[in-house]
Design brief:
Blueprint (H helix, E strand, L loop, with lengths): L1 H21 L5 H16 L4 H12 L1 H14 L1 H5 L2 H30 L1
Length: 113
């Protein structure tokens, strides 16, 4: 499990470095996640050890959401002034995500037939 955690941290740090080096307007963790995705696709799948570690982390996912929730509560006075803008951003991002997921699922269902 420690080895697969090191792999995940390596991709995270590599993503942070790439974003910093190229001055990209993208979170380093997202860049690292995309690099991990490309690596796993090129490799042909996820190793059982990485799968087990991912399942363990996924089981404790609510704990990772606590810092974001604390941040929202802490910054509520600032966020309250921007509610219409935040609402619009959430609506647009939800709609785009919904239609993208629908398109991917439709494509995958056609492939399986």
């Amino acid at each position: 499990m420690v080895r697969s955690l090191m792999v995940l941290m390596l991709f995270h740090l590599l993503g942070v470095w790439v974003v910093s080096y190229f001055s990209l307007n993208l979170p380093g963790s997202i860049c690292g996640l995309l690099m991990l995705l490309v690596f796993l696709v090129l490799r042909g799948g996820v190793s059982p050890l990485l799968q087990q570690t991912s399942d363990t982390l996924f089981a404790h996912l609510p704990l990772f959401l606590i810092p974001g929730t604390v941040g929202i509560v802490s910054w509520w006075p600032l966020l309250a002034n921007k509610l219409p803008e935040l609402g619009l951003i959430l609506l647009v991002s939800f709609t785009l995500t919904y239609f993208f997921a629908f398109a991917v699922m439709t494509l995958l269902m056609r492939r399986s037939d």
